[in-house]
Structure prediction request, 192 residues.
Amino acid sequence: MKTSISMLLTLASLTSFCVAGQKSAPQTSPPTAPLPVFQEGELQLDLFGVYGVGNAPNHAGPFREHAWGGGVGLNYFWSQTIGLGIDADLKKGRENEAMGSDKKTFEQYSASLIYRLPLEEYSLAPYLFGGGGITASGGNIGSVHAGVGIEYRMTPNHFGIFADTRWTYYGDRFGHSDQNNVQIRSGFRVLF
Prediction:
């Protein structure tokens, strides 16, 4: 009987050892890297408010004092850092003296090449941009511009806020010296 019991115990221990060896290790998938906050192939829709500073002598361009308004833009980034943007805005302001002194609505259409420097860990991207456009109010005025801005992604790859400022140069207009002004924009950016 002792032999039977010891054989049963030996058999039971061998069986449990064999079964324990057959247990598989827990399955773990390799960690996946999160998507970049700022990606290539981004299509963005901008909705913004704009303020134009034009109250310096011979420094105003089409509007003489201050101009307020809003606009819409569309940007496409074919790489994480380089993109192209187009925008249109409407501003209400007082015209340049040579054009009269009534309050007018100014339409501005522009295109810009954009270079951004994504800081992924902070969800921030400072950017530089430059390009050209047309301002319309009783006649079309060509312009070139350059600017700087910053974007913060509130929801990575979906939604952000931005603010930028641009210097716009209109050339020698209305018999004055070179005409230019500064415009400040801030708004929301939706990604598709």
